[in-house]
């Protein structure tokens, strides 16, 4: 059986990184977009990160343009937008596909572990997955769920 730690992802600079580096840390994995109605969620995600990173929480952002092309095409533009507009300091990875046949293997795994309410796949930007310290995908949050509503669940994992 696969584990979250079996996956490699591409960093914003193009280098590969194993998620095994996050063993023992609770994680929030989120697909993001810079030009979406949910984009202001970056602010609340950053607050969670600032409040709980010292206790082990890591947030991993994965930009995707699969929903109405709401993401910049250039990786540098994505990174600059997140930093300049929302002060994002949590890791942002390379732009990927999160649904369909071309979906990144990590997101195929995430949706297989936590199905959505109406669909198994990713419905929209800012679908969020909560992973415990052992690497289990314990909860999935809809795009419209504000990150602040995840705080109690995050605290339980710290």
UniProtKB/TrEMBL annotation:
CDD domains per UniProt: GSH_Peroxidase
Q: Give the InterPro entries listed for this entry.
A: Glutathione_peroxidase, GPX_AS, GPX_CS, Thioredoxin-like_sf
The catalytic residues are 36
Query: Which GO molecular function annotations are given, in alphabetical order?
Result: peroxidase activity
Q: Which UniProt keywords apply?
A: Oxidoreductase, Peroxidase
Instruction: Give GO BP annotations, semicolon-separated.
Output: cellular response to oxidative stress
Q: Report the sequence similarity comment from the record.
A: Belongs to the glutathione peroxidase family.
Query: What's the protein here called?
Result: Glutathione peroxidase
Question: Could you read off the lineage of the organism from its UniProt record?
Answer: Bacteria, Bacillati, Bacillota, Bacilli, Bacillales
